[in-house]
């Protein structure tokens, strides 16, 4: 009985794992190149207090793209490097999903980590796919349904592997990279994501069309915009807004 439920759990997770997506030589080269990216340690806000994020971060992508998370950390895109763009294209060929930005996370030792979270920022648009390439240290990745009391499933993310979080993964599941006292090696993780502000804007306008008495909010270029303001602005600019019937907000 227990085995059956375990079987069902692992088979219904909205993720795909490809060990050896990059061969060992490719992964070693990419890891060496990634060490030279523009890493920085950011501060998030927890209960109003600034807190150093326990890892280094960077972002590359389309000029002008930004990414706000936890309502407190804004990452700004550096222009794509050739190496990152090449990996991005290879993931698209493998998975069929296209990406606009990559956010790097650098876990300096096993003491660096990321707690339970979903990558559900509206700047990525509706039901994003997120592709994650792991380099160097093999660290444990845990994922569990958002339903209270759910059990988590663990994967060891190997050097050169690709983990694809499919659309709906962020809605229904939460994930983490826990601390690992035994790990002294560094791990670099590249997470390729959409940055579809147009798509996010479309969702808010659709929401405004179907719920005219309620307000939807969107994070756009680091600013919180309200659906009513967007509708008014469109009207004042003479931009016609249409609402499509297939919206399932
Ligand atoms: Mn994440």
> Which spans have pLDDT < 50 for at least 5 consecutive residues?
1-10, 245-249
- Give the biggest sheet: 7 strands, mixed
The helical percent reads 25-40%
Q: How many E strands?
A: 17
The order of strands across the largest sheet is 1-13-10-15-8-4-7
The assigned CATH architecture of the largest domain is Sandwich
Q: Which fold name corresponds to the CATH topology of the largest domain? A: Jelly Rolls
Alpha carbon gap, first and last residue:
37 Å
Query: Which structural class should the secondary elements be placed in?
Result: alpha+beta
Shape: globular
Radius of gyration: 19 Å
**CATH top level of the largest domain?**
Mainly Beta
The unique ligands bound to this protein are: manganese (II) ion
Q: CATH H-level name of the largest domain... which superfamily?
A: Alpha-ketoglutarate-dependent dioxygenase AlkB-like
Question: How would you describe the overall organization of this protein?
Answer:
This protein is an alpha+beta fold. The protein has two domains: 13-195, Jelly Rolls (Sandwich), CATH 2.60.120.590; 198-236, no CATH class. It contains six helices and 17 strands. The strands form five sheets. Strands 1-13-10-15-8-4-7 form a seven-stranded mixed beta sheet, covered by helices on one side. The structure holds manganese (II) ion. Residues 117, 119, 175 line the site of manganese (II) ion.
